[in-house]
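Our platform keeps sequence and structure together, in a single record for each protein. Nothing more is needed to write down the fold, since each code stands for a local backbone conformation. An entry from our holdings is shown next, in its original layout:
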Amino acid sequence: MYDVTTIGEIMLRLSVPIGARIETAAQFDVLPGGAEANVMAALARLGLRTAWCGALPDSPLGRLAANHLRMAGVNLEGVHWCGEGRMGVYFVEFASPPRATQVIYDRADSCAARMTPAQVHWEHLLNTRLIHLTGITPALSSGCLEVMKETVRRARERGAALSFDVNYRARLWSAEEAVQTLAPLIEGCDLLFCNRSDAARLFGLEGPAEETVQRLAARTHARITVMAMGAEGAVAWDGAQIYHQPALPTTIVDRLGAGDGLAAGVLYGWLSGDLRLGLRYGVALAALALSQQGDMIVTTRQEVESLLAGREAILR
């Protein structure tokens, strides 16, 4: 039924304008965000059939998050609606140098963190060409870890392709715990996403990007390995060829969601049978994420194509 499905957590983001401080804030902008949800929203806006599964409180806040996903075109029939419980929230204080942007999380004991395998609509989640997962969800709770293990097991039994974004969060667990937990989950996955800093912190892999991404593939046996390099763009290895795509020049408005944009673009290309196209789409979506407010990218396939065409015309 779907091109891509996912399961994970979505939270509410409360942010203050640049120049304002949280401790004296008079108002907050409210938007939902979550790594897995961000990827599904971007892919839906590119025209793919996507579904987000997870747990949300049956409350105005839960419905707010759901409404944003519906506006993007993401199917929510696999959501487990909780009669009681809370949503995780995170507060963002944007800043210009010399101050750094601050992010404060308040996500403990959310409906998502309480999720168990018994709450998952498995047939809905597995009725797809590809399942996309991240390393954030298994760090939330023991129940979420069991959900991830069961998702990987069932996907492999069903023959659905697996995509995994390492997405290490030091505030949730140590690097040692993350590596030990994630290793069996990412082993042999179809697509593995890992940025340069996570490759160093978790796997001890440093050096030239092309060499690092190949060593990461050898360690995890991922069929395709993609490494984000920030302003340098992204590099990918498919076991036979290295692909490199420079980043697009961008005026940064909001740093959150760029990595999810890269993942969405690569998945779009992979599902189309063209990894190089995926990297091109990935850096374009990452640039669009940086240039607009909110974690979820608002765009169209036509806009992405136009952006890439204009950039390539300049390079020629």
Notes: The longest strand covers residues 50-57.
